[in-house]
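ok new one. same drill as before - structure tokens go in, u give me an amino acid for every spot. 91 of them this time. try not to just spam alanines like last time pls lmao
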């Protein structure tokens, strides 16, 4: 799952505990069949090598307004290609 740098930094720092995705057929096919807990790979960018984090999603809930999936993030399992200096980059 791709994520913007500022949100990626917050997840890695442990301050962002929920990741949101608009409810759509695209995400329903990917999130719907999964059983919690599951591992989620977050990528900041499209071209390798990019910062990457793997986290546990403890549960998925649905928001009504706007309709969205709420992925409740748990423990961070790994972080690759990311340093603390990147934390201050709020682009």
């Amino acid at each position: 799952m791709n994520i913007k740098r500022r949100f990626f930094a917050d997840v890695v720092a442990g301050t962002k505990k929920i990741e949101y995705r608009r409810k759509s057929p695209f995400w329903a096919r990917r999130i719907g069949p999964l059983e919690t807990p599951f591992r989620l790979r977050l990528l900041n960018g499209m071209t390798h090598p990019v910062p990457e984090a793997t986290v546990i999603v403890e549960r998925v809930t649905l928001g009504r307004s706007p309709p969205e999936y709420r992925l409740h993030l748990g423990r961070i399992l790994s972080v690759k290609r990311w340093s603390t200096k990147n934390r201050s980059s709020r682009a």
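The longest strand covers residues 68-80. and btw DSSP finds two helices and four strands in the chain.
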